[in-house]
Design goal:
The structure holds two protein chains of two kinds. Chain A is an alpha+beta fold. Chain A is built from eight helices and 20 strands. In chain A, the strands form four sheets. In chain A, strands 6-7-8-3-9-10 form a six-stranded mixed sheet, sandwiched between helices. In chain A, helix 2 packs across helix 3, helix 2 runs parallel beside helix 4 and helix 3 crosses helix 4. The two termini of chain A are about 25 Å apart. Chain B is mostly helical. Chain B is built from 24 helices and four strands. Classes of the chains: A alpha+beta, B mainly alpha. Chains A and B meet through strand 6 and helix 2 of A and helix 1, helix 20 and helix 21 of B.
């Protein structure tokens, strides 16, 4: 439905987008994930027509959008900090896109009511936008973007500035809403939790290029390279040499799953795969710190000579800082990654 | 077309009309008068420039023009910046009325202000009578009159922006450990910088080209370039010297404007603007009350007192005799009753305001677009030139350039509004540009993505936000048009004088009755301006926050 072919944008000498190829299918919710400066906002702006391409093309429903100005592209964009029109009330904000298309007054009113119901703000049409809370502004911005029935809805850090509990609730609501409406969505975020909760497909970006693309499960289970792994919050990443079902690492011999790539590579051990045992067994470590994570405790371990390790422990079994423990690795939670430099 | 070339085309479209306007009604007449001055029998004699500048008395004029303008600007900022703060951030009863009151001096004809100050600080004036103090032989009378004139420029330009600055920015600095003063210095002052610079520039230009005030209060001792140009043109009939002085003034003003455009560009950025009604509050604490008190006292002594003296003089005859006399056409100075000048002035100023807002608004919209190149910035500075070039030159230029083909407007009423719009348009640009530049580009993008074509984006996003600035700009243009004297005096037809022209004619004639009539007519002009401005103020507050 949406297609990018070799999309390239340069600011000065730096490429914000560097030959990006991307396809988003009808009704798909795709989420671009990446650190700030990775080019994800630029990606949205090129699709919206707010940023011209230096090379490459953008297609929507098979139509080349080159030369089509932003106001004729028929896409919806929800801005990072909403950008509601301060001089207009909620209803006028939501009706804006309809007005631009010359919709009749009655149709506008009906659609505004419908959308405000949809986003959970019934009867808010006459309220001033300045009087809205952050979450309400977000809902109004969403209603405004959805009102003209865009072929593609784009969200720039949709939940960026909201507090955590609200964010978690809204992610579920958005997901549900997109499912019901069948909207094609392209969202960008730097928050992996948001991306994984929202998306059918996650696209990880780095330095203007796509580092990995796949379902949330695929990306989570098999990060393409060290960059993706670290960006997803995995810190147990080391250089390793794989031979058969064992890898030689700074932490000693680590078992790897069957069929892992052989030879030198990068190895990830998910925290759940770091098992704590008695200090007399396995890799000997000192507990440096503990972080309470709700369902488990993240235990930071300091081996004697090798890089730090993070382990996930059940709440009750977690050792105290300063304790001496032993570590063994669970092959099921070990992934041999592609080489970041070659990706 | 790529977005980039489309943007360039749009800017060109916006700029076309202002460029043509300024070319035809400014550059062409000025060129005509310069040619008239420097050409003898069709031969250019540029050596005249050197000859004229070598004269010691001309050098003295240049030196005085510069330093009195600098001193006036500094003094005006010193006196008016606290006023700008008070009007921007404090709520007090009668604020609207007072805002109009401080604007009135700005629109008064310069000759009237000169006379009012003479009545206040001159021989036999109020201070002379009370304490035997006379300032009319010193430069202080000129400086004070300049502050009187330009107080409103600073209060409106700086205060208008100040009222819309988000106070939380300053609060953020306070929380980060900045003292109240440091927070103001580090956060508010830099944000106000462009507005202060713009206001200072205006004040400097007005005082640099000051005419009526210096003419009356300067006596034989003090003379500015403008007065000298007028003297050379109308008293000595030495057109070539006048032309040389015009070129010198033109060059000086152009240089100042280029420097100004450069400094403003470096400091203007997107500001967080909020609704002005959210930032103002009742004064709190002894310090704020003292500030409010001192500002009110300043306004009373410096602005209201001279006007009061003016009104008192207009009533200084039994049974409103001076006002009665205005309704009679005596056939001497006027072909019509002086009172008719009121209608003329209001009509001319309305047309001039329309033209100025259209031209200035288009120019500001073009200049505010992102990625302005060198050419556009040059245009920005060029727009300000009509302010800096002598009004006398503009009027005289109109007279000699627009009275023959290809453009024959001799005797047409439109000449007066055109000249006034020429002076008013730069105000519109100066007032609107900072606000337009501060509009968040992403708001425009949001509108574009929702399907708004570029002109619609302007109407739907920019206009509601800048409407306030637009009204202020229109008010300024209207006020300037009403009070414009230097150019109008050349081109207003004898049977259709404007108020300032009528006042000047009355002042030029001997006798208490004429003097009293001038005072009466000035009082009427003052009242007309005050009423017009009060209407504008009402309009502003009633419709803020809706569209």
């Amino acid at each position: 439905m949406l297609g990018l072919e070799g999309a390239t944008v340069r600011f000065g000498g730096r490429a914000a987008l560097d030959g990006v190829d991307l396809d988003v299918a009808e009704h798909e919710v795709a989420c671009v994930l990446g650190p700030s400066g990775s080019g994800k906002s630029t990606l949205l702006r090129t699709v919206a027509g707010l940023q011209g391409l230096d090379a490459g093309r953008v297609f929507l429903d098979g139509r080349d959008l080159t030369g089509v100005p932003a106001h004729r592209r028929g896409v919806g964009l929800m801005f990072q900090d909403h950008q509601l029109f301060p001089q207009r009330d909620v209803g006028a904000n939501v009706a804006f896109g309809l007005r631009m298309r010359g919709a009749a007054r009655a149709e506008q009113d009906a659609r505004v009511r419908e959308l405000l119901d949809l986003v959970g703000l019934p009867g808010a049409a006459r309220r001033a936008v300045a009087a809205l809370s952050g979450g309400e502004q977000q809902r109004v911005a969403l209603a405004r973007a959805l009102a003209p029935r865009p072929r593609l809805l784009m969200l720039d850090e949709p939940l960026g500035q909201l507090d955590r509990s609200l964010r978690e609730r809204l992610v579920v609501e958005l997901r549900d809403l997109f499912g019901r409406l069948g909207t094609t969505v392209l969202a960008v975020t730097h928050d992996q939790g948001e991306a994984f909760a929202l998306a059918d497909r996650v696209v990880v970006m780095r330095d203007g290029r796509i580092a990995q693309s796949g379902t949330p499960l695929e990306v989570w289970q098999r990060p393409a390279d060290e960059f993706v792994a670290r960006f997803l919050g995995f810190d147990n990443v080391v250089e390793a040499t794989v031979a058969g079902r064992t890898a030689d690492t700074p932490w000693g011999k680590v078992p790897v799953p069957e069929g892992s790539p052989q030879g030198p590579g990068t190895l990830l051990v998910r925290p759940a795969g770091v098992r704590l045992v008695d200090a007399s067994e396995g890799l000997r470590c000192t507990v440096a710190a503990r972080t309470f994570r709700g369902t488990h405790v993240a235990v930071h371990l300091m081996p004697e000579q090798s890089p730090r390790l993070e382990a996930a422990c059940p709440l009750r079994a977690a050792p105290e800082p300063g304790d001496e423990v032993g570590v063994v690795f669970d092959a099921a939670e070990v992934v041999v990654l592609g080489d970041a430099s070659r990706a | 077309m790529t977005p980039r070339t489309r943007r360039g085309a749009a800017r060109f479209g916006l700029m076309a009309l202002p460029v043509v306007f300024f070319a035809v009604f400014f550059a062409y007449p000025v060129a005509a008068i310069v040619a008239r001055g420097l050409q003898v029998d069709g031969v250019w004699r540029l050596g005249r420039v050197v000859d004229v500048l070598a004269q010691p008395d001309i050098r003295h004029v240049l030196w005085f023009t510069t330093w009195q303008a600098l001193a006036s600007t500094a003094l005006t900022l010193l006196v008016a910046l606290p006023g700008a703060y008070v009007f921007a951030r404090m709520d007090f009863p009668g604020k609207q009325a007072l805002r109009a009151v401080v604007t009135v001096p700005f629109v008064l004809p310069t000759v009237v202000v000169g006379t009012a100050f003479l009545a206040l600080v001159g021989r036999g004036g109020l201070l002379d009578g009370l304490w035997g103090v006379r300032l009319d032989t010193t430069v202080w009378a000129i400086l004070l009159a300049h502050v009187f004139f330009n107080y409103a420029v600073v209060v409106r330009t700086v205060g208008g922006l100040w009222a819309q600055l988000d106070p939380r920015q300053e609060e953020a600095a306070r929380v980060l450990g900045a003292s109240r003063l440091a927070a103001w210095r580090k956060v508010t002052l830099p944000a106000l910088g462009p507005a202060v610079a713009a206001a200072a520039l205006m004040v400097f230009l007005f005082t640099f080209t000051s005419f009526g005030v210096v003419q009356i209060l300067g006596g034989p001792t003090f003379s500015t370039l403008e007065v000298e140009i007028y003297r050379q043109t109308s008293e000595i009939f030495d057109l070539s010297t006048a032309a040389v002085l015009t070129i010198v003034q033109f060059g000086a003003v152009g240089a100042i404007l280029v420097v100004h455009a450069w400094t403003v560009r470096r400091r203007e950025g997107a500001l967080r603007l909020v609704d002005a009604s959210l930032t103002a509050g009742r004064p709190r604490g002894a310090g704020q009350w003292a500030l409010l008190g001192s500002v009110l006292a300043t306004v009373a002594v410096l602005l209201v007192l001279p006007l009061a003296v003016l009104v008192q003089r207009s009533l200084d005859a039994p049974g409103f005799a001076y006002y009665q006399a205005l309704t009679h056409a005596d056939g001497g100075t006027f072909l019509v009753a002086p009172i008719d000048a009121i209608g003329n002035s209001l009509r001319y100023a309305a047309v001039a305001t329309l033209i100025a807002v259209l031209i200035g608004g288009l120019a500001a919209a073009a200049l505010a677009r992102r990625g302005a190149g060198r050419l556009v910035r040059g245009f920005d500075a060029l727009l300000m030139l009509p302010l800096g070039v002598s009004a006398v030159t503009v009027g005289f230029g109109f007279l000699i350039a627009l009275d023959k083909p290809p453009l024959n407007l001799r005797g047409s009423w439109i000449l007066v509004p055109l000249a006034q719009a020429l002076v008013g348009a730069p105000f519109v640009v100066r007032t609107m540009l900072p606000v337009l530049r501060a509009v968040d580009e992403r708001l425009r993008e949001a509108a574009a993505v929702l399907g708004a074509p570029p002109w619609r984006v302007w109407r739907e996003v920019d206009l509601p936000i800048v409407r306030r600035a637009l009204l202020v700009a229109a008010g300024f243009a209207y006020a300037v048009s009403l009070g414009e004297f230097g150019a109008t005096v050349f081109i207003a037809r004898p049977d259709n004088p404007t108020l300032p022209v009528a006042v000047a004619r009355l002042l030029g004639r001997a006798g208490d009755l004429n003097y009293g009539q001038a005072m009466a007519l000035s009082t009427i002009l003052m009242v007309v301006c005050a009423v017009a401005l009060l209407v504008l103020e009402r309009l502003r507050t009633d419709r803020t926050g809706e569209f």
